[in-house]
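Before the break, one more example. Copy the sequence into your notebook; we will annotate it together after we see the structure.
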Amino acid sequence: MVSEFVAEYAKLLVSHPEDIAVSVKNLEENYDEITIVANSEDVGKLIGKEGRMINSIKTVISGCKAKGGCNYRVNVESKK
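Here is what the structure looks like once it is written out:
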């Protein structure tokens, strides 16, 4: 559920939505890492000025934490 939301939201923010890929990796019990892979031109758009955009994504995801009890870490990487 969270990965689909992050993927669709990220696609709305970038210039190359076809390059967006989201993966979820379980690090510990109740702790997952979400990695957003985007075109190198779009990484800045996902992070935003002073990290405001990525922080807003993290805020929305924290609502999922309240429902599912899982903590998330969000990373943005450039497509290689």
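The mean pLDDT is 88. The first strand starts at residue 21 and ends at 28. Try to locate both features in your own notes.
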